[in-house]
Fold this sequence. Notes:
This protein is α+β, with helices and mostly antiparallel strands. The chain has 2 domains: 7-52 and 68-123, 2,3-Dihydroxybiphenyl 1,2-Dioxygenase, domain 1 (Roll); 127-194, no CATH class. It is built from 4 helices and 10 strands; from the N terminus they run βαββββαβββββαα. The protein has helices spanning 13-23, 80-89, 164-179, 183-194, and strands at residues 7-10, 27-32, 40-45, 48-54, 71-75, 93-100, 105-111, 117-123, 126-127, 134-135. The strands form 3 sheets. It has a 4-stranded mixed beta sheet, with helices on one face. Helix 3 (164-179) packs across helix 4. It is elongated.
Amino acid sequence: MGYLSPTLAVRDMKETIAFYKDVLGFKTGMMFPDANNPEYADLSKDDMVLMVIPAANCGLGGEEKLGAGVNFYLQIDGDIDDYYREVKGKGAQVIAGIKDEPFGIRDFTVEDINGYQLTFNQVVGKKCLSCGMPMSKAEEFGGGNPANVYCLHCANDDGSLKQYEEVYEGMIGFMMSTQNLDRPTAEKAAREYMDTMPAWQGR
């Protein structure tokens, strides 16, 4: 699997590194040429990596706003409520408090000292092994049974898994309506996605 490591242009390298390390709990990696005068640094948390460089090196002047329209969505390990209390207690600027989203995610958003927004999130509940839908309420589980590994969309009334073609048709319709795809494109995307789901691997 590939990974993405964004590079952020920042005003003050040392202050930014200190913020990510001391407030958000990131670990420092390579700093070039050295820690006393860094022109590059990488910072990591739970296998996620951000890199920082001086804004001046990108031709950005002091009057230009950094971070406008940029939000990083970071799925963390550990307990998100503990982490929220930790970073808030260390003075992080929280711009969206911790909350449960209707799609099975619990998250909160902070803004770093440069204006970049970071939404830390964690999946709550289970995910359907057929389509990946998060399930936290009893009515979201197949047959209304919280022990079921399939969601209400992929399961029959008795909780058993529907036939592949029936689930496939539902996934096509979902992708067409939510992603504005035409039928042939949605068919291809749905098949490729379902091939990654545990219920259908090796089918």
